[in-house]
Amino acid sequence: MHRRVATGALALAMASVLAVSACSSKSSDSGTESGSSGSAAASSGLEIAPLAQIDTQGNEVQGAAESAALNPAGDGQAQCPKTTIAMAGALTGADAALGINIKNGAQLAVDEHNKANPNCQITLKPFDTEGDPQKATQVAPQIANDDAIVGLIGPAFSGETKATGGIFNQAGLVSVTASATNPTLTDNGWKTFFRGLANDDVQGPAVAKYLTGTMGKKKVCVIKDDTDYGVGLAKAMTQSLGSAADASCSGDVKKGDREFSAIISKVTAANPDAIFYSGYYAEAAPLAQQLKTAGSQATFVSGDGANDPQFTAQAGDSAKGAILSCPCGPAPSQFKKDYQAAFNQPPGVYSVEAYDLASILMKGINEGKRTRPELLSFVRSYKGPGLAREYQWSPTGELTSSLIWVYDVK
């Protein structure tokens, strides 16, 4: 996932990527993310702050109330034999921070549950896919064939979900993702897949209309990577932007690229109001740096794949003023305190969703749904509030109500 990089500022960015990979590898062994997102955020001096929650028309909507959310501790009276749920996602590699955010969010919920319920101890078993669909197809059978695992949080990325969804479906294992947003995932006929946040067909129109409406952007360059996530979100954005999407400066990059001179030449020639990058932070950071170096004054905009403190850490001052969207919700105050105390760093993107989804699975287990068919049925009929949003699913596994958050970097 990495290629030759340029010298100067970009070389420093790549060095940061390598440092993140090393820290992530160490943290996956120790069970914490020390040296990753949290410390990176501190060193950048920048904050990804919630700006507004919006609907598909780009209109602002009030966020969920923390006090109404499902508490993983329950009433403290649960009794059950030792039970295991799994988490699958990138715990090492260039995008490891995203997977670790999910693992930590789920682990916080499990720890709170276990502390309150000594007679019902639940184990979270993490599996590292590196965010790679090919690696995920090797990991998925290990999860599916482990009869002790009754539920799965993940997979994390759209590509690996596409590659493994059939395996989990055949095994009858409920799979709740905190982060995979490609819209076509729910078109596969899987009966065990549930998406815990809005898909890109919601995110694209919402962000496009927010950019052209509230922010008044007239010309937007859409650049995408070659992942299932990047392609899907870029398609939704381009269609929703309509005439504001300037085809002369649209472009494609590859996952792992770090040198973007060709697409930057197209962007500077077009002189747009905004640039939307559809991909992950490992590429978004050097792209933002090189655009700034080239003199671009356009607002840098990206989606949930870049909405992580690693983007600000790796892009440095070039990230300032960027707009980042996400179907994920910001961390409420008490959750943020608890997460900081547990992992010595603030929560990251998808941490709240993972906490909510783990809490839902454990509620089912507490209510006696301890086989795969029973827990699957429980999730299918579930309805209730979480920290991030209301959770209820359609027959295809999509949320019945989906909203998007917009964040700014300052």
UniProtKB/TrEMBL annotation:
Keyword Cell cycle: no
Similarity annotation: Belongs to the leucine-binding protein family.
Keyword match Signal: yes
Name of the molecule in the record: Branched-chain amino acid ABC transporter substrate-binding protein
Domain Leucine-binding protein per the UniProt entry, residue ranges: 84-409
Keywords: Signal
Residues making up the signal peptide according to the UniProt record: 1-22
